[in-house]
Write a structure and sequence with these properties.
There is one protein chain. This protein is α/β, with parallel strands linked by helices. The protein has a single domain (5-289), classed as P-loop containing nucleotide triphosphate hydrolases (Rossmann fold). It has 10 helices and 10 strands. It has helices at residues 58-66, 105-109, 111-115, 121-133, 149-161, 179-196, 207-213, 241-246, 248-269, 274-289, and strands spanning 16-25, 32-42, 47-51, 73-78, 81-82, 90-93, 167-171, 199-204, 216-220, 227-232. The strands form 2 sheets. The protein has a 6-stranded mixed β-sheet, with helices on both faces. A 4-stranded antiparallel β-sheet has the order 2-1-4-5, with helices on one face. It binds adenosine-5'-triphosphate (ATP) and magnesium ion. Adenosine-5'-triphosphate is lined by residues 25, 32, 34, 52, 54-60, 205, 223. Magnesium ion binds next to helix 1.
């Protein structure tokens, strides 16, 4: 089936500003600081990737951006207006799959518009367009249990995009996929981004994923997390994996981010963190291969 440009609603990209945000849990002596004085922008129409050690507080930040929780201090705004709760203008794809197992791919994709009573012809055409884009046309009547992990994630991308959010927020969406499927997902996802230039915020612990996808990388510290560096990834688009592997600029960005992450891991390693010890191990293996 050919593309239906007229079926695509215009993309309205938003901008999120995080200013002096801290988040702690618990009372008095049990208080645990997870996010500390974070300030950054999720720029309009850009793909911002946040990379940080496992357990540093990334998903906590996402819950704040989504409006599921409020910061202890500081403010978060979308296009200048404070975020006071969840809203369809910010759509979150979580680490875990959120497809309904009792619905077909097609009905999963249509879930949002159907729930809002917006199943008009334009929406159905847009759904058809997205189904093609994520390569699931042959799987429209299959149920999530009949799809591979990669297909499930692609169905979720379509299910999110049909709501046409101002900002897409993705929390390690490709975690747990095998290396080859993951690389395919990067290509699908970056094509979708390049065609729409919606504002995207993508969280990961995978440096190759970060460099391949990002316009800007925010490198985070260990818990309580803070922004340690902002790196602009000025590599041309559309990107191909083979180009990135050979690119000196991509390797520079990678080294810069890894060196910061390594320092962070060493710090928490010395405080006895198992996750940090695992990271230092993985880092040393990677450094040995380079
Ligand atoms: N509601 C809560 N109450 C108390 N502590 C919490 C709460 N939510 C998160 N934390 C703590 O915040 C820390 C960071 O958790 P978070 O899930 O944000 O990390 P993450 O960076 O997303 O990790 P991962 O990469 O493994 O997904 C954890 O140590 C957790 O114990
Ligand atoms: Mg997380």
């Amino acid at each position: 089936m050919s593309e239906i440009p007229s079926a695509r609603p215009p993309v309205v990209a938003g901008e999120i500003a995080v200013r002096g945000v801290s988040k702690s849990y618990g009372a008095a002596q049990f208080r645990k600081a997870v996010v500390r004085e974070c300030s950054f922008k999720i720029e309009q129409g850009k793909l911002t990737v946040m990379i940080g050690p496992s357990g540093c507080g990334k998903s906590t930040l996402i819950r704040l951006l989504a409006g599921f929780e409020q910061p202890t201090e500081g403010s978060i705004t979308l296009d200048g207006a404070p975020i006071s709760g969840p809203d369809r203008d910010r759509l979150v794809l979580f680490q875990e799959t959120a497809l309904f197992p009792w619905m077909s791919t097609w009905n999963n994709i249509l879930y949002g518009p159907r729930a809002r009573g917006e199943l008009d012809r334009g929406t159905l055409e847009f759904a058809e367009f997205l189904l093609n884009k994520v390569g699931l046309r042959e799987f429209r009547n299959k149920y999530p249990g009949q799809l591979s992990g990669g297909m499930q994630r692609r169905a979720e991308l379509a299910r999110a995009m049909i709501n046409n959010p101002k900002v897409m927020i993705l929390d390690e969406p490709f975690r747990g996929l095998d290396a080859m499927t993951k690389e395919l997902m990067w290509e699908y996802y970056s094509r979708l981004y390049e065609e729409n230039r919606r504002t995207n915020f993508f969280v990961t612990t995978d440096i190759d994923e970060a460099v391949f996808l990002a316009d800007r990388v925010l490198v985070m510290s260990n818990i309580p997390t803070q922004v340690r560096a902002v790196i602009e990834v000025d590599l041309p688009r559309p990107r191909r994996l083979s180009d990135i592997v050979e690119s000196d600029r991509a390797n520079d960005v990678k080294k810069q981010a890894l060196s910061i992450l390594h320092t962070e891991a060493m710090r928490s390693f010395s405080r006895g963190s198992k996750a940090a010890a695992d990271f230092v191990d993985a880092y040393l293996k990677r450094a040995g291969r380079a």
